[in-house]
Design goal:
The chain is an alpha/beta fold and 187 residues long. Helices cover 39% and strands 20% of the residues. The protein contains 6 helices and 7 strands. Strands 1, 2, 3, 4, 5, 6 and 7 form a 7-stranded mixed sheet that branches.
């Protein structure tokens, strides 16, 4: 089974997060990840044949990047036919601020999936770094249930940010979506 990781990355930070999501999908042992950068050619037919899609983009000015928003709007012909209905979906996002209004981006991605008739999969993770013994190294350190969040300092290149804990959170999301897709398929 194939899970598409459909993303946009302005400076490489979200691409690292997308790669981590794809690694999680493949860790499942029963799913293959298809990385799709929406700033390039979009393999619409392959998206349609995927068991699920995990959408990701940076949070710019409190919402999805314009490049990803264009992909969303370009999917309208698929929406009209409900070609993606009953597939699983999830989301991830990166911003330079701890909050950065990332939740608004994830809600936008979830609504987009809902309009396509897809089933949204949450992180299923308890929040990390929310007790005095917690740390920035905790899984789900930003405490998101809606999707995987990452924070990348804007003055650091993608090789250094986001931190490993955010990438591990993204991996866990990919693994969870692959498990959900298998369950939905009845396998």
């Amino acid at each position: 089974m194939q899970i598409a990781v459909v993303f946009h990355s302005g400076y490489g930070h979200t691409a690292r997060q997308a790669q981590a999501v794809a690694e999680g999908v493949e860790q499942s042992g029963h799913a293959k990840a298809l990385l799709v950068d929406v700033a390039k050619d979009i393999p619409w037919d392959e998206l349609g044949s995927s068991a699920g899609m995990i959408f990701g983009c940076p949070t710019y000015m409190g919402g999805p990047s314009a490049v990803f928003k264009k992909f969303m709007e370009d999917s309208s012909s698929r929406w009209m036919k409900q070609e993606w209905a009953d597939k699983v979906a999830a989301g991830f996002t990166t911003s330079s601020s701890q909050s950065g209004d990332k939740l608004n981006t994830l809600v936008s991605l979830a609504i987009f999936a809902a309009q396509h008739g897809m089933f949204w999969i949450s992180t299923g993770l308890m929040p990390g770094n929310n007790v005095s013994t917690g740390s920035v190294n905790d899984i789900n350190r930003l405490g998101s249930w809606m999707g995987a969040m990452a924070q990348a300092n804007f003055d650091q290149p993608a090789e250094l940010a986001p931190p490993e804990s955010d990438l591990l959170t993204a991996q866990k999301l990919g693994l969870r979506v692959a498990a959900a897709a298998k369950r939905f398929a009845g396998a």
